[in-house]
Amino acid sequence: MKKQLLAVAMVLVAVAGGTLGAGVGLVAAGALVPRLGVMLVGAAAGLAAGCGLPGRWARRIGGWPRRTPLGIGVLLAAVLAAAVLPPGERIAPGTAADLWDLPTGSRLAHHLTPARGAARATPVIRLHGGPGTPGETADGLDDALAAAGWPVHGYDQLGSGDSPRPADLAGYTVQRQVDDLEAVRQRIGADRVVLIGASWGGTLAAEYLAAHPEHVAAVVFTSPGALWTPEYTEQQAGQLWDRLTPGQRDRISRIGGTGPRVPLWTLLTALDPAQAHALVPDAEADALFARLLAAAGPAATCDPGRTAELPVKAPGFYANRLITADLATRPDPRPRLRILHVPALVLRGECDYKHWEVTREYRDTLPGAQLLYVPGAGHAIAVDRPAEYRAAVLAFLTGAPLPTAPYIGAEDPAKH
Q1: Backbone φ and ψ of 155, nearest 5°
Q2: Count of other CB atoms within 10 angstroms of residue 61
Q3: Is the distance from CB of 336 to CB of 342 less than 8 angstroms?
Q4: Poorest-confidence range of 62-66, 145-149, 176-180, 233-237?
Q5: Cα separation, 367 vs 337, whole angstroms
Q6: Phi, then psi, of 132 in degrees rounded to 5
Q7: Which of 323, 324, 325, 256 is nearest to 289 (CA)?
Q8: For residue 358, how many other CB atoms are within 10 A of its CB?
Q9: Strand partners, 372
Q10: What DSSP line would sit under 375-397, residue for residue?
């Protein structure tokens, strides 16, 4: 009886050792060559090494069949296969009619809304949020600006929307985004441009302004993200999760199913994004990201319980994850911004999940910046109050009086 118990214990040791060995082998092989085939070979080798000896001991101690170690290995291999092999739902980028190959190495989907009538000398470039979530510009602002004489350029940032996904993840940095924007400006052929950035696009506009102020005629920051990410913890900055309903949180927790594939991918994303990319390629990662955005998106409005989904193209998961991580390593742009005199409008919605201090810092850092408070709007101002949003931007750019007086207080106006 004691031998049988000891043999069972050895089987458990074999299972644990094989599981650990497979994980170590997968990560070690992926660190050398981040390709799924190589990672699977490493996992198989680690599995065999981890469960082989304890399995043989279990067979000898318990008098079990000679194929006991093989059976343990097959069982663990089946679990490994369930974690690695079955692909999930996939989503592909849309087909862009105008793809721009930039000298930075990026290939971006570009779209232009031509000015009607005589075109103004300073075109508008719109910068979408995320990172990696283009599509929110379907708000009528492009047409309104074009009708007032501005050519409006937009582009899907590297690895998102209709832009092709690069095989190399090294381009997902904030500096690459700044360089891409400068390359777009040069391709347009305009000495100066107007920037309109939403959420992360506002952060990108600030980064570009600090690097190339001579090329910015005016800038609009719509619900901008943190001006300098290291200044805030995630809790201090405010997160979309804070406004989710219990039903939305439950829906998000069920995205990806119950198998081991997504937890393994999540772990690899933290350890080595190149291995995560090999395990779950763009098409599958973007599909999961799209489902998450569909569940959480309404919380960006003033009515987090709404059922309507926000407009968005195929989002780029790896663009989002890696550029967000890179933001924490950026030098502080605020000393440079404090001495720049560029007309700036900051738009803040009543229900924005970003904390008030994040928005106020733009007004207080940029000399002469004006902050406009929009009641009844969330982080996605153009979704909740599209007419008010267009009116504010047009008034600012044409020099007309703003629809409401700029807010000059220090406290969050939503508290009043």
Answers
A1: -150, 150
A2: 17
A3: no
A4: 62-66
A5: 8
A6: 90, 15
A7: 256
A8: 22
A9: 347
A10: TT--S-HHHH-HHHHHHHHHHHH
Cα angle for residues 395, 396, 399 (degrees, 5° grid): 80
Residue type, 212: H
First CA to last CA distance, the chain = 75
* Gyration radius of the chain's alpha carbons: 26
What per-residue confidence (pLDDT) applies to 35?
83
| Helix (H/G/I), strand (E/B), else coil: 219 | strand
pLDDT at 267 over 70: yes
> Tokens 């939305």 identify what position?
248
Cβ atoms within 10 Å of 247's Cβ, excluding its own: 10
φ, ψ for residue 384 (rounded to 5)? Answer: -80, -40
Cα–Cα distance for residue pair 208/387, rounded to 1 Å: 28
Residue type for position 46? G
Minimum mean pLDDT range among 57-66, 104-113, 146-155, 372-381: 57-66
Distance CA 301, CA 230 (A): 26
Q: Name the nearest CA neighbour of 61 among 7, 11, 8, 12.
A: 7
DSSP percent split of the chain into helix, strand, coil, nearest 5: 50, 10, 40
Give the predicted TM-score (pTM) of the model: 0.89
- Rounded to 10°, the helix 2-32/68-84 angle is 40
Q: Which of 340, 347, 362, 337 is nearest to 397 (CA)?
A: 347
Q: How many residues does the chain have?
A: 416
Alpha helices in 63-140 (DSSP H): 68-84
* Token pair in block for residue 324: 């967000």
At 202 the pLDDT is: 98
Residue 190 token pair: 């305009």
What is the H or E stretch that residue 371 is in? strand 370-374
Please state whether beta strands 107-113 and 99-101 pair in parallel, antiparallel, or not at all (unpaired): antiparallel
Backbone torsion region of residue 384, taken as left when φ is above 0, otherwise alpha when ψ lies between -120 and 50, otherwise beta: alpha
Q: Where are the beta strands (DSSP E) in 170-246?
A: 193-198, 216-222
